Amino acid sequence: MRLRDKVVIVTGGGRGIGEAICKKLADEGARVVVADLILENAASTAEAIASRGGQALAVKVDVTKRVDVEAMVEQAKSTYGRIDVLVNNAGWDKVEPFLDSDEETWDKVISINLKGVLYTCKLVLPLMIEQGYGKVVNISSDAGRVGSSGEAVYSAAKGGVIAFSKTLAREMARYKINVNVVCPGPANTPLFEEITSYNPKISTALEKAIPFRRLAEPMDIANAVCYFASDEASYVTGQTLSVSGGLTMA
Fold this sequence. Notes:
Strand content: 15-25%
CATH superfamily: NAD(P)-binding Rossmann-like Domain
Helix content: 40-55%
Number of helices: 9
Shape: globular
Strand order of the largest sheet: 3-2-1-4-5-6-7
């Protein structure tokens, strides 16, 4: 098991990509803090992990609120004693032309996708420095690498995650802490289903554009996260990995 007894926090762990990440890391031996805005979703994931013989703790957290993030970190510490891996997966998007969007949507997109990452890193990294070990895996998006029509602010926020992670990787290297980024392409998730509900043609168009002719499944992303979270990637930091079925190759 690549993550035996490691303590992992996964934000947005209650469904979709986050749920798959939690299950994958638990299968590799990690003790998982399943953090989600909806506690029932987090509990469902934690129960599924327990039914497979793993260890998991469900925690309610709104990553846009520092007090919530502080409580999540404290709960993880008090339960497991340390935090070895942080996976920032919580995210949200609304697909629409930029000129049709409003400031309320901008604020929500930036707060969840970028500011939430700042909060978690600010509060978890000092613990990792103190224990002399840590891995941070931030989930960005190919939209943040190459842009995406209808996702201007989301692309900006996710691009910010990439730039932030690269800088953090440089600053944290002296403490032997790895910081890397996984960029999913279009994936078969509840959020994507929500987007297709008001953009019904987008799924078919994307499947035609992706060389593998399918959307990513959540476990495709989870497998990449597991690599970065493991000691197999101990000499890898500041890197951005696209998991997009070949939709983007640069």
